[in-house]
C-alpha cells in the first residue's frame, strides 16, 4: 500500500493559504531574522533563515513522533524550555551590545564564522521556543486525514511544505532587511545604532518570551 504523505489537493490548498497567513505575520523568528539581517547583511539573514527552519524541522519531527505532547502535558518542561530560549535571546543581546562594530568596509564582508554563528543562533532560538512545538502539535493535525493512514508521515509531509513556504517568506524578510542594512552602512553615524538597536531588540524579545503567559492550550 502506498504511503500518503500529503492531503488531497483541496485540503492542501487550504493548508498552504493558512500557513502563508501565519508565516507572513511577524513573530519571534521573523524578528530574529530581521534583526540579524539589519546587523550583518543579507547573507547572514539568509543563513539565519536556514538555521531557523532547520529548527522547525526538529519541531515537525517531534510533532510526528508525539514528543510535543509531552511538552504540552508537563508544565515544568514547558517552563524550562521557555526560559532557556529566553535566556539565549538575552545572551545574544548582551553579546551584541558588547561587540565591536566593524567599519563599513569590514561590514560588507560577512566572514564564515559570522555565517556559522547566524545559522547556529537561528537554530537554537527556534528549537528552544516551546510555543513553536505547541503550534505544530495543534496546527498540523488539523489537515491530516486519519482515514488515509500513515498519520506521522502526513504530519512530516505537511511540515516539509510549511518549511518550504517559510524559507520563501522569511527569505523575503531577510532580503528586505539586508538591503536596508546596505543602505544604512553607506550613511555615517550609524555604527553605534548598529550595536544598540539589534542588542536591545534581542534582549526585549528574550524578556517578552520569559514573561509571556504559561497558557499551553
Question: How would you characterize this protein structure?
Answer:
By secondary structure, the chain is an all-alpha fold. It has one domain. 78% of the residues lie in helices and 0% in strands. The protein has 10 helices and no strands. The chain has helices at 9-24, 28-40, 42-65, 67-73, 75-98, 104-107, 112-127, 130-139, 151-185, 191-210. α2 runs antiparallel to α10 and α3 (42-65) packs parallel to α7. The longest helix has 35 residues, at 151-185. The protein is globular, with a radius of gyration of 19 Å. Residues 102-111 have low confidence and may be disordered.
Q: Count all strands and give the number.
A: 0
Large-scale geometry: globular
Terminus-to-terminus distance: 36 Å
**Percent strand:** under 5%
Q: What number is the mean pLDDT?
A: 75
Task: Please write out the topology.
Layout: H1 9-24, H2 28-40, H3 42-65, H4 67-73, H5 75-98, H6 104-107, H7 112-127, H8 130-139, H9 151-185, H10 191-210
Helix pairs in contact: 1-9, 2-3, 2-7, 2-9, 2-10, 3-7, 3-8, 3-9, 4-8, 5-7, 5-10
Compact overview of the structure:
The chain has 217 residues and is an all-alpha fold.
Amino acid at each position: 500500500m502506498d504511503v500518503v504523505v500529503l492531503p488531497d489537493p483541496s485540503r492542501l490548498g487550504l493548508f498552504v493559504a493558512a500557513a502563508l497567513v501565519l508565516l507572513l505575520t511577524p513573530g519571534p523568528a521573523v524578528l530574529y531574522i530581521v534583526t540579524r539581517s539589519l546587523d550583518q547583511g543579507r547573507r547572514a539573514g539568509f543563513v539565519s533563515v536556514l538555521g531557523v527552519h532547520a529548527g522547525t524541522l526538529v519541531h515537525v519531527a517531534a510533532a510526528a513522533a508525539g514528543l510535543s505532547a509531552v511538552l504540552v502535558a508537563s508544565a515544568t518542561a514547558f517552563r524550562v524550555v521557555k526560559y532557556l530560549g529566553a535566556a539565549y535571546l538575552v545572551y545574544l543581546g548582551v553579546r551584541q551590545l558588547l561587540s565591536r562594530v566593524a567599519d563599513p568596509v569590514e561590514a560588507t564582508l560577512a566572514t564564515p564564522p559570522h555565517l556559522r554563528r547566524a545559522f547556529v543562533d537561528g537554530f537554537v532560538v527556534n528549537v528552544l521556543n516551546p510555543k513553536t512545538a505547541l503550534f505544530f502539535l495543534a496546527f498540523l493535525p488539523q489537515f491530516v486525514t486519519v482515514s488515509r493512514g500513515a498519520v506521522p508521515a502526513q504530519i512530516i509531509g505537511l511540515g516539509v511544505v510549511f518549511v518550504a513556504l517559510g524559507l520563501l517568506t522569511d527569505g523575503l524578510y531577510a532580503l528586505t532587511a539586508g538591503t536596508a542594512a546596505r543602505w544604512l552602512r553607506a550613511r555615517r553615524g550609524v555604527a553605534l545604532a548598529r550595536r544598540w538597536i539589534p542588542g536591545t531588540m534581542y534582549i526585549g524579545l528574550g524578556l517578552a518570551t520569559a514573561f509571556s503567559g504559561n497558557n499551553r492550550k
